[in-house]
Amino acid sequence: MSTFDAPSDERVLCVMPTFQCTAECTHCGTASSPRDTTWLPVEHMHTAIDQAAAAGYKRVVFTGGEATLAGKNLHQAMRGAALLGLQVRLVTNAYWATNDDIAARRIHDYICAGLSEINLSTGDQHARFVPLKNIFHAARASVAAALDVVIMVETVKNRSITRETIENDLEMKRIRQEFPYPEITVLEGVWSPLSPSVVEQYPDGLVINTQNLSMRKGCDNVLTTTTVQPDGSIRACCGIGMRFIPELKTGNIRETTLSEADRTAADDFLKQWIRLEGPERILAWAATHDPEIVWENMYAHRCQACIRLYKDSRVKKVIMEHGAEKYAEVVYPAS
Ligand code: SF4
Ligand code: SF4
C-alpha cells in the first residue's frame, strides 16, 4: 500500500446507471438531459459492485443522470450491493416524489432493495424541472423510514432557494416536528460552470485568492472514490466535469478491473498532487512560474479549478517543465 492508497474502508464506488435525466440543469456536471440515452447494463453494475466489495470498499453511491430512471436494474444493483454488506446511497432529484403516498411507496421499495442513505438535490436550476415540494415529499418519506437524508442546495450569489429558505419552509418545519429524531442535513454546495474560463458570482468569501488559499485542502475525492459511468468508463473521482477530463479515465469496466483502475490512478503523479494539495494550490503554484496564468477570484468549486489544470496549455506546460520540483514533497509527504 502506498501513501496514496486510501484505506479500503474509506473507498467509495459511484455507479451511474445512466446519463439520462428528467432535468437539464445549466452547468450539470455530467451534461445530463432527457435526450442522453447512455445506459450502463446491469451486469456491468454487478461486476463493479462485486469487485468493489472484494476490494474492501464500504459504500456504493448510485448517481447519474437520474439513477432512478434505471427502474428494476437499479433495484437489482442495490440488492446486490446490500447483500455484499455495502452501504447503499442514492442521489436523486426526486422527480418521482410527486406526492407523499407515491414517495412513501418508492422509498419503501428502495429500502427493500437495500437503500441506507439518500441525497436529494435541489436549488434554482433543479427547481426549473422538479418542484421543491417533491424534495419535501421525498424527505418526509425517507425520515419516516428512518433513512438519513441530506438535501444538497446549489449555491451561487443570486438565488432564491437557499439552506435558509428550505429550513424556514413550512413543509420542512412540519417534517422536523413530525420526525424530531431522524437526521435531515441541509447543505449548500457551490454550483459552478464547467468551463474554466467562465467566472460565476458567488456569496462573499467563496472564491479563491491569495488571502484564503491556505484554507484550501487537498481533494479527498480523487483516489478514494471510483466511478463507473454509463458508457462503462472508470474514473478516478466523482467530481463535476470528470466526464470531460480524459486524464481521469482509468479504464473501462468491460475490460479493466476496479483494482487495476485504482492502481493506475494511484500511480499518477498529478492525481497524487491534487489529492495532497488540491487543484487551487497547484494553479497558484503554476502562476509563480508563469505570471500570465491568472487564477485569483475565478473559482469557488475545486473541480472547476481542476478542469483548468487539465485544459489550460500554459498550466500544463508549467506542470510538465517544473512539476519535478514538487515530486519529493508530493510522493513522500511529511506525516
Ligand atoms: S438533476 Fe442533477 S443530473 Fe439532472 S440535469 Fe440537474 S444536475 Fe444534472
Ligand atoms: S478536484 Fe479534480 S480530481 Fe478532485 S473531484 Fe474534482 S475533478 Fe475530481
Poorly predicted parts: none
Number of strands: 9
Radius of gyration: 20 Å
Which kinds of small molecule does this entry bind, naming each only once? iron/sulfur cluster
The secondary structure category is alpha/beta
Sheet with the most strands: spatial strand order: 6-5-4-3-2-1-7-8-9
Shape: globular
β-strand percent reads: 5-15%
Order of helices and strands: EHEHEHEHHEHHEEEEHHHHHH
| Helical amount | 25-40%
Count of runs of 4 or more consecutive helical residues: 13
- For the termini, the CA-CA separation is 16 Å
On the 0 to 100 scale, the average pLDDT is 95
Largest β sheet strand count, sense and barrel closure: 9 strands, mixed
What does this structure look like?
Helix content is 37%, strand content 14%. It is an alpha/beta fold. It has a 9-stranded mixed sheet with strand order 6-5-4-3-2-1-7-8-9. It is globular and about 60 Å long. The two termini are 16 Å apart. One iron/sulfur cluster (SF4) binds next to loops.
Short description:
The chain is of the alpha/beta class.
Tag the structure with descriptive keywords.
9 strands, 9-stranded mixed beta sheet, alpha/beta, binds iron/sulfur cluster, 335 residues
Please outline the helices and strands.
Layout: E1 12-15, H1 42-54, E2 59-62, H2 72-83, E3 87-92, H3 100-113, E4 117-122, H4 124-127, H5 132-144, E5 148-155, H6 163-168, H7 170-178, E6 184-190, E7 225-228, E8 233-235, E9 249-252, H8 258-266, H9 269-277, H10 279-289, H11 302-311, H12 313-322, H13 327-331
Parallel strand pairs: 1-2, 1-7, 2-3, 3-4, 4-5, 5-6
Antiparallel strand pairs: 7-8, 8-9
Helix pairs in contact: 1-2, 2-3, 3-5, 9-10, 10-11, 10-12
The structure holds iron/sulfur cluster (2 copies).
Residues 219, 221-222, 237, 239, 241-242, 274, 279, 302-303, 306 line the site of one iron/sulfur cluster.
